[in-house]
Specification:
Layout: H1 15-24, E1 29-30, E2 45-51, H2 56-66, E3 75-77, E4 84-92, H3 98-112, E5 118-127, E6 131-137, H4 139-157, E7 172-178, E8 182-183, H5 185-192, E9 200-204, E10 206-214, E11 219-228
Antiparallel strand pairs: 1-8, 2-4, 2-10, 3-7, 5-6, 5-9, 6-7, 10-11
Length: about 230
């Protein structure tokens, strides 16, 4: 299926936002984000994330977009105070000790020491089968951060303990989650009307190891460690 392409056409646009959008608008059906294996019974997980709860530019952008999506009954809007990018899961908390989690954080600190802070472009809006989210790039610095996060887990627990993740990592920030199987067309057509809102640029200077939990149909976390990007640009 297709829908009108109202994508942002600002100068300096890279290829990945168009690729993200092209993949999204080919979907026929959306799925329930909350039906994921392993998360039942209040289970929690250690995750590496990039936090945007102290990024007013991203929060304002998300709020503007959410105001145009709120009437869609298949979506759960994410609180702007908990916006984040998931990089890599370390382990469910019942499969690792707190001491091991702290050791992973220390290993990540060593691995990230040579990575410099960088500017990232957040937007335009797009989505996937289970969420509505911002494209984020450029991709390469985020891929390096994800690799360092996975390698830090392997340093402490061995390669076999690193949770499997999709090979193709497309950095994104979710602002809404689909909560039931439904036709994709109405959501995609509404997202298309929001893509004219220009992206924002933010500075990425740290990653966080958090204890992630589900609170109803939202995510919440408790920070375990923050690891700065201390390399020279």
């Amino acid at each position: 299926m297709t829908s009108p392409d109202h994508s942002w056409d600002g100068s300096g646009e890279l290829e990945y936002p168009r690729s993200d959008w092209d993949q999204y608008r080919q979907l026929d059906r959306l799925v329930d984000h909350w039906k994921r294996p392993g998360w039942g019974g209040g289970r929690r997980s250690y995750h590496w994330i990039i936090r945007f709860d102290d990024s007013p530019e991203v929060q304002r952008l998300a709020a503007r977009c959410q105001a145009r999506l709120g009437h869609l009954r298949t979506l759960d809007l994410a609180p702007v105070s908990s916006l984040h990018m998931t990089l890599q899961r370390v382990s469910f908390t019942d499969e690792i000790t707190s001491a091991q989690a702290l050791a992973v954080a220390a290993a990540a600190n060593d691995r990230n020491a040579g990575l410099p802070p960088f500017a990232a472009i957040v937007g335009p809006l797009t989505g996937s089968a289970d969420s509505v989210h911002f494209s984020v790039g450029p991709h390469r610095p985020f891929q390096l951060l994800r690799h360092a996060a996975a390698a830090a887990t392997a340093d402490v627990r061995g390669v076999a303990a690193v949770p499997a993740q999709p090979t193709n990592f497309d950095p994104h920030i979710s602002i809404a989650y689909n909560h039931r199987p439904t036709a994709a067309k109405p959501v995609i057509e509404q997202v298309a009307t929001v893509r004219s809102i220009p992206p924002v640029t933010v500075r990425i200077d740290a990653v966080s190891l958090v204890e992630l939990r589900r609170d109803g149909h939202t995510y919440a976390w408790r920070q375990i460690a923050a690891v700065p990007l201390a390399g020279e640009g």
